[in-house]
UniProtKB/TrEMBL annotation:
Entry-linked NCBIfam families: PRK11118.1 (NF008333)
Protein name: Monooxygenase
Oxidoreductase keyword on record: yes
InterPro entries: Dimeric_a/b-barrel, YdhR
Keyword annotations: Monooxygenase, Oxidoreductase
Entry superkingdom: Bacteria
Pfam families (UniProt xref): ydhR
PANTHER family: MONOOXYGENASE YDHR-RELATED, PTHR39169
Gene source species: Advenella faeciporci
Keyword hit for Metal-binding: no
Gene Ontology molecular functions: monooxygenase activity
Length: 100
């Protein structure tokens, strides 16, 4: 069963295109993570938050990534990482045009 991972954390920039340039190598690395189907990068400059929404093939892949990514972010000096994992209801999500 597919699982969605929601992650957010305090972030002070860079934003937009500058973030895209600086984080390109990280994005390439994330694309190779076991079980990852896709990631949507999120940023909220006015709230100084960033994060992502990820779809994984299964819960163990999502949990392994969350554990690794939390440690990585803390290594970058980010003190608090919010992470939640949800099972995906494929049938209802397809009705509402989810990119499954």
């Amino acid at each position: 069963m597919r699982h969605l991972l929601q992650v957010d954390f305090p972030y002070t920039g860079p934003w937009g295109q500058e973030m895209s340039k600086i984080m390109n190598d990280l994005a390439q690395s994330i694309a190779q993570e076991p079980g990852l189907i896709w990631k949507i990068w999120t940023e909220n400059e006015s709230a100084n938050e960033a994060g992502g929404i990820y779809l994984f093939q299964d819960k163990p892949s999502a949990q392994a990534y969350l554990d690794m990514h939390t440690a990585r972010l803390k290594g970058f000096g980010i003190p608090h990482v919010n992470g939640k994992i949800f099972a995906v209801n494929d049938d209802l999500s397809r009705i509402d045009n989810a990119p499954l």
